[in-house]
Amino acid sequence: MEGEKEQEKIIGVLSMEYTVSAGNELFQDFLLGRRQYPLVQLMKEEDRGRFLELSKEHADTGFKTVVRILDIKNEYRWYYIYLKKFQAENGQEFYHVNMRDICHMEERIGILEQASGQYERFLCMQNHMYFIYSYMTKKIRVFWLNGNLIHTVMEEDLDQWETQVCRTGKIKPEEARAFQLVCNDIREGTERFIHDILSTIFSSEGEEKLYRFRGITWKQKDKLVECYGTIQLLDKKTKRIKVDGSLDEQLDPLTGLYNKRSCMKRLKSVLEENTDASITICMLDLDNFKTLNDTYGHLFGDRVLTVVADTMREILGSRGIAGRFGGDEFFMIIDSDIDEQEVRQILFTLRKNIRWYFEKSEDQLVVTMSVGAAAYPKDATSLEELFAKADRALYIAKEKGKDRFIIYDEAKHGRVTFDSEHQKIVELSIQKRAETDKTSTVLYIYNLLEQKGINGLEEIMGFIGKVFAIDRINIFKSPDLQLWKTWGYETWHQDSAAYILKEDFLSNFNENKVGVCNGIEIKAYKFPKTYEYMDKLEIKSYIQYLIGKGAGLTGLISYEICKIKRKWSEDDIHNLTLISRFIENTILKQEE
Asked: What is the mean pLDDT of the chain?
């Protein structure tokens, strides 16, 4: 590998006038018939002055820069250059120059990143723990891999770890010698070693397990750099490698994320071990996942869940851990050194990337998620209270139309009363009942309209959207059916609903002034312009209700599905018709 790297370098010796005195084969190929030219003469004029200035000030100590140089095809290419002055045996001074083609370097980096990813995926499948010891910091870290996440089991000074293990009884006296040999081989830089140790070092249940430490030491120019290796679980009788079930028990089998139990255990240990810790927890729900599952099947639903998990791992990286609580519920613990602005960036990127993945796929679905977040100790002094406030933020995100994240703020979102005895958030029972019972929803909205009139419409639209899993609700009013109120999914803005007055589109509405469409493709032939307009709005299906009729037509209420194709149930059509009639009466009454 090192030989390959050397062969890629253009290495040469320049005189003090920057003409070529010597060079490797690549340098000769690079120059061809231009050896008589000073190297600086081949540089782009804008870069030449900067290079000469750096050479004048830093050639004695050496400097690195990038410049554009004319290649043999008479085209300028970017090169990375390292230049340093040296003195020959005869006392004459020269420049040693080391050049790399940046485009070639980028290609090489891409190949290395791909190889690194492959090796990482192989390591993830091994079900082993790994260790790395740094001879500079004197610290040893034990970890295991889960996707592109690294789960650290322990990280301590090697001497302190050795003393702690022996003193706390995690290893029997007769096994202590083997453990000390491991520590000594690591400390002294033994080239290769293997030791089997019976202990409870990595057993959370206190059960004695037989571990095999296999290590190798890396040196660079005879200097110790790192010792690294594997820790394998062995069968105590046969001494053959055994799968460490304790690792798999921490993971969700479908997504490979941490499961609920291991997430909670990790969270509790962080707060118990570090009283000064400040962390952010995020509760995530996929929007309308049940509808997507019912429409496309559970296999497709599983694919969505794995894509979400992979995206969470990729974006979160080493800044925290990601888990799946079950179903379409996910969870993140974001580390203490991440401020709120970076939390916002993580959540924004997560939502956008998940949505982008499915929009660009052949399915062209819009898959979104709602997120609620809260921070410890800023928002809560206990784990239960922290979850309550994150859950409250998630509820608000869904109430506001889904496809968004809310970071809890008591000043904005109100106090959350937590009943620690029953471990639940105390909420208004009438609203909770309305969320699960659509008949109660109709009555709830009727009462709200009676109390607040049109001033309660924004609240009502949000409530309808959540209960009926609607992506967007628009209310249009005359003149010209201009947009009056809107809620939900943000996309290309529609200013009016004047399209319903063209192409005989009003023939879609029945005697109850209701128009139902379970897929706008069926409108393409008869109403091509309206179909083109709705497609631009990303409408996939809709229920619409006319306010007024005939010459008295004064408005339109439009309930729109934008993310997945969905067929409206008879109950939904009936209930939304009743609700629309209540809204219509309230609007007309206000205008009298």
From this structure: 82
Cβ neighbors of 307 (< 8 A, separation 6 or more) are 354, 357, 358
Task: Say if residue 195 is exposed, middle or buried (CB neighbours under 10 Å; 0-12, 13-18, 19+).
Answer: middle
Instruction: Report the percent of the chain where pLDDT is more than 70.
Output: 85
Beta-sheet pairing, 192-199 with 129-134: unpaired
Q: Encode pLDDT of 110-124 as tens digits.
A: 787 777 666 666 666
Highest mean pLDDT among 136-150, 426-440, 475-489: 475-489
Among 31, 8, 13, CA closest to 87: 13
pLDDT tens, residue by residue, 389-404:
898 889 888 877 788 8
Per the CB < 8 A criterion, the answer to whether 302 and 295 are in contact is: no
How far apart are alpha carbons 42 and 17 in whole angstroms? 13
**Residue 25: predicted pLDDT:** 76
CA gap 534, 544 in Å, rounded: 13
Please, which pLDDT band fits residue 361 given cuts at 50, 70 and 90?
A: low
Strand residue runs (E) in 26-128: 63-70, 76-87, 93-101
- The DSSP-derived string for 24-48 is -HHHHHHHGGGTTS-GGGGB-HHHH
The conformation of residue 249, written as its DSSP 8-state character, comes to T
Q: How confident is the model over 224-244, as pLDDT tens digits?
A: 999 999 888 887 776 555 544
Q: Is residue 554 helix, strand or coil?
A: coil
In sequence order, which residues have a C-beta less than 8 Å from that of residue 190 and are 6 or more positions away? 184, 215, 217
- Report the largest interatomic distance among the alpha carbons of the chain, rounded to a whole angstrom: 105
Work out the burial of residue 386: count CB atoms within 10 Å of its CB; fewer than 13 is exposed, 13-18 middle, 19 or more buried: buried
280's enclosing H/E stretch is strand 279-286
Contact status, residue 68 vs residue 43, Cβ threshold 8 Å:
yes
Token pair recorded at residue 213:
């430490």
In the 8-state DSSP scheme, what is residue 569? P
Dist. CA 442–CA 14, nearest whole Å:
85
Q: What is the rounded CA–CA span in Å between residue 211 and residue 215?
A: 13
What letter does residue 184 receive in the DSSP assignment?
A: H
